[in-house]
Each structure stands twice: as C-alpha cells, then as structure tokens.
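# nightly structure sweep
# worker-07 picked up a monomer target from the shared queue
# config: single-sequence mode, recycle default, output format = structure tokens
# input follows
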Amino acid sequence: MRRRLILCAPLLALLACTSGTDDRTTSTEAPPINSSTSPTIGRPAPGGDFPDWPTYHGDALRTGYAPTMPTASGAPQVVENHELDGNVYASPLAIGGRIVVATENDTLYAIEDGTIVWHQHLGTPASQDQLPCGNIVPLGITGTPVVHGGTIYVVAEFGGSPPTHELFAVRLSDGNVLWHRSVDLPGADPAAMQERGALTVADGRVWIPFGGLFGDCGDYKGRVIGVPLDGSGTPVAYTVPTTREAGIWAPPGPVWDGNNLYVEVGNGEASTGDPYDKSDSVLALTTGAELAQFFAPTTWAEDNAGDLDLGTQSPALVGKWVVAVGKRGTAYVLDRTDLGGIGGEVSSVDLCTSFGGTAQVGSRVYVPCTDGIRAIRVDGTGHIHVLWHADSSVWGSPVVGGGRVWSLNPDTGTLYALDPKNGHIVNSVNVGATSRFATPAIYGARMFVPTLTGLTVVSTS
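# output follows
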C-alpha cells in the first residue's frame, strides 16, 4: 500500500526529506501479530496518571528511576504477551498509558489497555547478505526511539546496496508518518554504520548516535547527528576524528544535562605512538555538535589494542560528577566542569566489566556488570564506594521503582526484583528470551520488557 506523506520544509539537498508517494512506508500493513492478556489480573486504566517514560531509562539523564511506581508487593506476574513481527532490541516507551514498541522488522507498534491500537511498517530491514558483518538479523530498528511533543522519532535501517538509515517522525496518536529523511552523511560507509544507541531530544533537535556492526568491520566512524525536530534545515554532526572505528554505540545513547551531550566512545585504530584521536574516551558535546570537553584514560592506546574501551556504556551524571565504566573494568569519576583530558580523572577504582545502561537514584548508581550488578555510591569528594554485588545471574541493564531494582538475565529470560539495600533477589518471573542489552520500561505498576518475539508486560503489585 502506498501512503501520501506530509510535505517537509525545504531541506539540505543531500539529506532531503522524502515526500509524495513512497513505496517504503506501507501504512499499517505488517506481518501477522498475536496478543494475549491474562484474564486473572485487571488491565490498567487507559491513559493513567503516572509520569511518562518517553526515552531510554525514562529521562534525558538515563536515570532509569520511576519514583512514583507503587510499592512492589508479592511476586511479579506476566499479564500480557504481545507477539510482534520481529525481535525487539529497543526499550519500550510509555506515554499517557500508550506503549510504543519498535521491532527489527522496521515496524512501530502502539499498545494501550492490552490492545494494539496501530502499527506502522516503515520498510524492509537489511538482511545478513547485505551487511559486511554484524549479529542482528534482520537489522531494522535497534536504537530506542524518543517521543517528544506527540511525535515518535525513530531511525530505521533498510536493506539495499548499500543499506541506508532514515530518521522518521511518526505521530503518536495514529501512527501516521509526518516526514522522513536520510541520516547517512559523507565520510563513512553506510553499510558499516549501525544505529544502536538511543535517540534523545535536546535544544530543538533529535540526536542520533552511530557506531559499527558487531565484528568492527568496514569503514565506520563514531558519530552523533542532530536533526531539527521539524525535519527542516541542515543537520549538525560530530564525527570522532579517527581513521576508523571509535563507535558511539552504547544502548543508552547520549546523556543530556541541559547544557551538553555526554557520550562514551569505543576503541579506534590509533595505538601506541599514534596521536590521540578521541577514541576510548568520554566526550561532552555542545548542541552545535562541537567538542566541549573530553577525558581519556592514560591507557587509551593500550585499551584500543586490547578492545578494552569505554564504549560499552554511557556516562552516569551524579551531581557534579561523571561516572564512566567500560570493558577494562575500571570505573572513572570525572569532574563535570572539567573532564580532565588524558589521565585527568578525579578518582578511579577497579569495579567490573560493564555493558549496557546504568540506573541512578541520587548519589547511588546501579551498574550492569557481567558478573552481577554492583551498587556504588559517589561521595562528595568524587570517590566511589561499592555498596553491594548482586548474584552473577543478575547482570542486565537495571531500572529502579516500587522499592526494587529490576534487572534481566537475558540468558534465561528472567526478570529479577532485587532489594536495593543489599542486592538480594526478592522475586523473579520468566519473561521469555531477550537480547543481550534488553532493559524494561516502567509505567505505573507495570514493567514492559522487550523480547525476541515482541513485548511481555509484568504486573509488580
């Protein structure tokens, strides 16, 4: 089916908005779907009175904290299962009781009161034979979308020669596509670029991070692109000044503090004896996409050579401090007013190898470690204190609410509820197989878990 898209304002010719008839956007047609709701537990009232969860971990700081979530009581229970048309890697979002889910088949779904109210298939994802490497098949929507002003902003990857990436603005109320445009910029091979990190909105633009595919193949470079919210005008972009690699791919995407965007950068090709190239770093970017500050460990070249970089996480902002953890296992505390350059950390501690997204409540940060979540506290002098270490079975990117820390074990498809005082497992429930970096969303007393078959909804009270 063909759809007539709303015309965009004049755009830069290179990244022109697509208007008129378009075979790529196929209205609400998509492969069959199946939903089920438990008859034993009541559904939440449509709309609800709880704060929205419109972005990865709920807010631009990526805190993953839902302070108004009702206190969890008893064992969590699965109350809905929605079988969708592809794997779900992105975090679900919740706005006014409407849940937004994106699949690797390039389809968006809106679910409310246990019912799929619309779905919008954006195009055909990239197949394995169209990609130089990678481990997501097919490759469609991977990065978590963001909702702002009643519009869903999402980047979809499409198959082709080469594969391409397009930013879509989709109306939350009915799923209609408002506009879409390419976000493939010169200077890197689109086939080797991957949009895995979450989008965010800051200072009138939607921000899109790019890294590479699993296997680090091809000519890719870490990049953050800012596109005006109405789709018009010229985008701004920061590309890591490296010869290759240095991806900005961590699932939480950029962290926005109202002034700067903070990202962690992966390993680049530069090694011992080469000039520093902003790889294996924490970068603070302005909303003009200019580098404001940076930090790199003194071991940055060694980290590059050993694939022990910081790029597996996004920074956690704790008051005046920035906490950065990555593959090497060292946690760095930086001064947000002066990230310190090379070797300029305020303090560091051997903590753990970390992948995914942290959660944060005040000065306490919950870190997803490969051998079990750590709870740490950052004191007023910028030093880390380890409070507890959870069981090794609990290692997914956590969120906090209802008096519990919630985390997945993707290996077993289990959602755990932990006591925030000591990290002990209080309860658990099976939610089905998930991706490695899956993280839940919270709305009211419900958890929304992305799975490899769709969406699982869990009641926590």
